[in-house]
């Protein structure tokens, strides 16, 4: 390689676009509330600059136990790959139910904009629920204790 070519190549690399560092919403919350108070809402008042190439994440976990629910919310930077909103029902009652929501994005600053439990919270069935629909769910293996179910939003 010619000695004159090296400085020219170095100069060209400085002109190439760099991966822009994102700014993400940042918060860590855990609280216990009554299920009747759902959906729960929060505001991420902090912003955090991420390392180059890192993305923004939303993590939400609901652990229902009787009339109460334990909520964990984490928002910030991550080096994990992008993925659309993913809801996983890790365990469904009776007794204890655990559901999580995760999302990783890099399309723009502050893209981790989840602000409530709405994507994972569902109303409890009413007393006169459709018995046929419940039987169909059982046939399909839905709602079995200890079963994980993954949903993509």
TrEMBL record:
One of its GO terms (biological process) is leukocyte cell-cell adhesion. Keywords: Cell membrane, Glycoprotein, Membrane, Signal. It comes from the Eukaryota. InterPro entries: Fert-Immune_med_protein. GO terms for cellular component: plasma membrane raft. It is found in: Cell membrane. The keyword Glycoprotein applies. This is CD177 molecule. The lineage of its organism: Eukaryota, Metazoa, Chordata, Craniata, Vertebrata.
């Amino acid at each position: 390689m010619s000695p004159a070519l090296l400085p020219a190549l170095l100069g060209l690399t400085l002109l190439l676009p760099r991966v822009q560092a994102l700014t993400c919403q940042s918060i860590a919350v855990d609280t216990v509330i009554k299920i009747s108070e759902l959906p729960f809402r929060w505001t991420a008042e902090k912003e955090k600059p991420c390392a180059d190439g890192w993305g923004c994440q939303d993590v939400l976990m609901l652990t229902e136990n009787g009339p109460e629910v334990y909520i964990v919310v984490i928002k910030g930077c991550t080096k994990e790959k992008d993925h659309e909103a993913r809801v996983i029902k890790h365990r469904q009652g009776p007794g204890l139910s655990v559901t999580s929501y995760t999302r990783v994005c890099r399309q723009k600053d502050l893209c981790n904009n989840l602000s409530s439990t709405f994507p994972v919270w569902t109303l409890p069935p009413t007393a006169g629920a459709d018995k046929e629909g419940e039987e169909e769910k059982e046939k399909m293996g839905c709602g079995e204790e200890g079963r994980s179910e993954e949903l993509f939003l």
